[in-house]
């Protein structure tokens, strides 16, 4: 029994390579998928994320179900996360690649349709995001920026008394 928990059926280096390739591939796919935060995901996006994790499991472990293999994969994934975090801190290019860039959605009370389309946001989505921040009209907004992390930052137009 103890041997089943600790015996790797795949070489450790093979597990490291598999985890690294899958991690980077899923990260790139999620970046391509858009900027929505976990809290902003729709049901279809959430289900896709759950199924992705299941779909790539065997790609990472190569059939190894040992305790040691699982722990090694966890260490590799955390190390990759830390390395990418360090790279994005030190490099503007890495930050653009892995985290993305902000997108201006509203300027001086007018929605920028081209940017909404690029982010796959409808006017209804935009109005919903604005209402969540207590804004009920585009005319109240000087700038609305969809940040790289999926949050919406708003600068209101100063109303003259």
General description of the model:
It contains 7 helices and 4 strands. The chain has 161 residues and is of the alpha+beta class. The protein folds into 2 domains: 97 residues, no CATH class; 54 residues, bsu07140 like domains (CRO Repressor, 2-Layer Sandwich), CATH 3.30.240. Strands 2-1-3-4 form a 4-stranded antiparallel sheet. Helix 2 packs across helix 4. 12% of the residues are buried.
Structural class: alpha+beta
Radius of gyration: 21 Å
Q: How many distinct helices? A: 7
Q: How are the strands of the largest sheet arranged? A: 2-1-3-4
Write the H/E string, N to C: HHHHHEEHHEE
How many beta strands in the DSSP annotation? 4
Q: Give the rounded overall mean pLDDT.
A: 86
Helix content: 55-70%
Poorly predicted spans: none
Strand percent estimate: 5-15%
Shape: elongated
Distance between the termini: 77 Å
Largest sheet: 4 strands, antiparallel
Number of domains: 2
In short:
With 161 residues, the protein is an alpha+beta fold. The chain has helices spanning 2-6, 12-33, 43-61, 67-90, 92-98, 113-118, 123-131; strands at 103-107, 110-111, 141-146, 152-156.
Topology, please?
Elements: H1 2-6, H2 12-33, H3 43-61, H4 67-90, H5 92-98, E1 103-107, E2 110-111, H6 113-118, H7 123-131, E3 141-146, E4 152-156
Antiparallel strand pairs: 1-2, 1-3, 3-4
Keyphrases for this structure?
single chain; 161 residues; alpha+beta; CRO Repressor; 2 domains; 4 strands; elongated
